[in-house]
Amino acid sequence: MTAETRRRRWPRVMAGVLSGLVLLATGAAATGNYLTTQVLSNVNGGNDGNFQGTTNTPVPGAPMNILLLGSDTREGKNAKGYGHVADIAGARSDTTILLHISGDRTRALAVSIPRDTKMMLPSCKTKEGGTKGGYVSRFNEAFDYGGPGCTVRAVESLSGLTIDHYVVVDFTGFKDVVNALDGVDVCLKKDVHDKDAKLNLTAGNHTVRGEQALAFVRARKQVGDGSDLSRIERQQEFLSSAIKKATSVGVITNPAQLLSVLSATAKSLTTDPSLANPEALKDLALNMTGIKPSSITFATVPWKYNDDFATVSVIPSQASELWRAIATDQAWPPPPTNGADGMPLTADPTEITANFQNVSGIAGAALKASALLASENYKVGTVTNGKTNGPSAILYNPNIEAQVQAARTLEYATGIPMAPTSKSKGMAVVVQVGADFPTSVKPVVASAKQSAAAETAKPRTAAESICSK
What we know:
- The chain starts with a helix and ends in an 8-residue tail after the last strand.
- The chain has helices at 3-9, 20-26, 37-40, 141-159, 171-180, 210-218, 228-246, 249-252, 255-268, 278-287, 316-327, 365-374, 401-414, 452-457, and strands at residues 44-45, 64-71, 93-101, 108-112, 118-120, 124-125, 131-132, 136-138, 165-169, 184-188, 192-194, 199-201, 204-208, 270-271, 296-300, 303-305, 312-314, 353-358, 379-385, 393-396, 418-420, 429-433, 460-461.
- The chain has 2 domains: 3-333 and 452-461, LCP protein (Aminopeptidase, 3-Layer(aba) Sandwich), CATH 3.40.630; 349-433, Alpha-Beta Plaits, CATH 3.30.70.2390.
- It is α/β, with parallel strands linked by helices.
């Protein structure tokens, strides 16, 4: 059996409990006596010689990037029912999620990276003592030859971000946490009978446990479009449901079950040495209790199929929007901008046409102003000289709704006041350019407009209930 066939055919471990840190945090506030050093000491600390992240424990108030990895290793207990280790070359991180935790610990962004992403792989130390990498291939190969530390390097190369810590979970850990939760609720839009995944479920709602839960998140052929990318969406749906279950009143108020969940989660995780520190984990978990399911956003890095239709490539122009939000610790997708009246702006710059009148008495002022707004994707109509001089103003017809909304957006972006007039006709507003016209404008996110990155990444929160296709 070739390595390619092994990659394609053998079942893979999926995302189910990669929310381990979130699960640890959910009960922290309610379990002062249970979230103990003894429980958290069961987290394993690993070092493959390739990890170069922070050596310090998590710092309250500082944003944090943690790479969550699902390992498909067949070593030990994981070999049971999933193929023998001798038949499967190495282990791969077939599930990779970059988890960004905000500095104020009120929100998290989890970005999935497709395993078949083609990229220049980093040069890393191998288990045999040599080095490997420096060639273009599938992203998940980095874990095979260089372990989690090499995968961290690959993600840092892909994103330009610094990864502070990593967490790895395997088959057995997945099932243990799901069972400790007494199952996770899932939904299917149609019957699924996948022999390879050993999954048989009818359309509708189900509570899955153990092997059935693992089958649900690794099934491909009978769910969605059969691709790994479709499976990523289902992993995110499962993960959302797991988080909702872990944060439910039924679990939080049941000390025995909560301790079981925390213990199973701790035992399922292998982390970098500094994150494996029990006191550091305890502090991090306690600091994360303010993160609610509605404040956890899942997304997939924007991608496109390559010509072989078997691998994908990241779309840099769109992915940069996510990486920038993480680097600056900003919410993503960005919330809608509120206008001067405190209400969300609904007119996107790309939908606004403005005619410019120079009322400054300065030659070329209107042309300069039009160029400034054009650089922010506003549409430029006419550029003329006004008959009189005066201050800047945005003229709009209050009886034409499109003009009203366009004027609200321009008022926010430029700081120029709106001025109603019945003379303004059609869809375009009039921007009178005075000597006080600004030299820069503020960016706008309209409530009715998604960025190209958001349309591709398909963000959703952990609070949403979604039925798998």
